[in-house]
Every structure is written in C-alpha cells, then in structure tokens.
Amino acid sequence: MTTTQKIHWPAEWEKHQATWMAFPCRTVIWENGLEKAYQAFADVAHQISEHEPLKMLVTSAQLASAKKLLSSNIELIETQLDDSWTRDTAPIWIKQNGVLKGLDFDFNAWGNKFSPYSHDQAVAQFICEHAQIERIPHQMVLEGGSIHSNGAGILLTTKECLLNPNRNPNMSQSEIEHELKQHLGVHQIIWLDNGVVGDVDTDGHIDNIACFVDNKTIVTQSCGEESENFSIYQANKSVIKGYGLNLVEIPEPSSRYTAGVRDPLSYINFYIANNCVIVPQFGCPQDIAARETLKELFPDRTICCVDANEILVGGGGIHCITMQQPA
To answer: pTM above 0.85?
Structure first.
C-alpha cells in the first residue's frame, strides 16, 4: 500500500456488519468432549446473533450437530477447517479510502504448535471470497488475537508473541513495526513485554491481558503479590501509563492449574458486539467485579455473561472464537 492511501483499522466497538465464528472440530484439544465444546460455542453464538448477523463456518462432519444446536437465524457456511479460532484465522479488516478490505496474513498455527493447519491457512481467503470483499495477502505471520486497535492509530501488542522466533524469525522488531504501520494504518505501537502466565498456546496474546475500551482507555487485570502474574501486570501498567493513557483494572480470576501449569483464565477475553458485550464467567468470586466494571465501561451496551470454562479447555476464550466484520 502507498502512503497516499488512507487506511483505517476499525476499533472493535465500531459498528459491525457481522461476526464470524467456526464450529469446533479438532477433537484432540477438547478434552471434555466435542459435545461440550459445541454447546459452549452455541451459547456465545446465540448471544451475539440477537444483536448482529452471525456467520458460522462448519465442516461437513459437524454440520448435523451445528444444525441441531444453533438457531435458524445463524448462517451456517460449510467449509474445510482444522480448528475453531477465527480471531486468528479470519481476515483482519481495514478500510482503505473508505472501502472495506480483508488483510490475509500468514497463519502457522501459533508457531507450528498444531497440525495440520492448511485449511485454517485458507480461512481468511475463503471469508473474503464469501463476503465478496477484496483480499490483500501478506507473507508475515500474524494472528488477530495478538494485536488490538483503539481505532485511532494506536496498536497494542506483546513482545512475547510478535517477537517470538516461531512466528517471523527473519524479521526484526523495527521491520515488524514497519509492516504493522504500513498495512494497518497505525502510527504508534505499544509493546507490552508479556501476556498472562500459562498462555502457552498463543505465546502471550494481547487479548488475554489488555485491550482498549475506547480510544484513550485500556483495561487490564490486577492481582496480589502471591499471583504468578503480579510482576507482569506491574510492568505492563508502567508501560501503559507512560503513554498517558487511562488504565482500568479488573481483579484476575481465581487461580486454577492443569498439570501444575496455571490456566490462562482472563476477563479481558470479552467480545464487543453491536449493542452488547459478551463477558466470560468462570464461577469465580471475581466474576461479579468483571461484569460490573465492564458495565461501567460500556454503559450503552447490554452485558451478556457466558460461562467460558469449556472454551478455556480448548485453549482460548470468547474473544478468541469470534471475529467482527466492520460495517
């Protein structure tokens, strides 16, 4: 893209035309069984579909289950899939001179952690073709969950993910910054060092630890010194405040461990739909504070609470399984 082209990367709270999801299909990651994963995705899909069109990608093998669980106002689109995380496989949408286009960055299954992934590599192209939107391909590896926009030219991310050698080993930080600024139209990049402890699948995606809720406010989590995340939160807060931005904190969920490793439970992994916010709940005492804080931050939207425990089993959250298509 040339510098004469005006590029706008919409914030997630801007008007949506639709939300894209993908029905669970990689059996090995859903340790409690696919049926529970199906229901968890359906719960999220039904909440969103009350506020905007919901398009669900589904494989032929899962089509019957999807038809059984999902309401008729959800559009089922049959295609080939490897996994179910559209935040990372769908296009990253921009407006170029006011025209909506889909950026198709390379996808390598979070540093070649899962295979096969060739079908997921093709998801962004498939969505662009189905939506009849121009696709702009890029060779750089980038997942949507690793970056966040304030809609006004600032990008938020983590070094843990974007500078990980399993993504773009031949690119320096300055080269990555150049690509992000050129193709997403941002002028400033805020680099946090790390994501939450235990987010090993994504190597510290930003959508588990911090996000914008308006163009000058970032929400993150907080904890006591006993938490493994304490030093990470403190370092990240220092960086954010250094940019003169407002900072709001939500107490992190109670700690939970699998095979001795802390699970990456996060209230930051919420999804903003038209007129509502889908907030993860974990059955923790902090659930109340999370929904009350987000209610204050989004006073004009309905707060819809959804149990996110079964989504967590697969390695992600509500934000991870959704991708907005801007209006």
So the answer is: yes
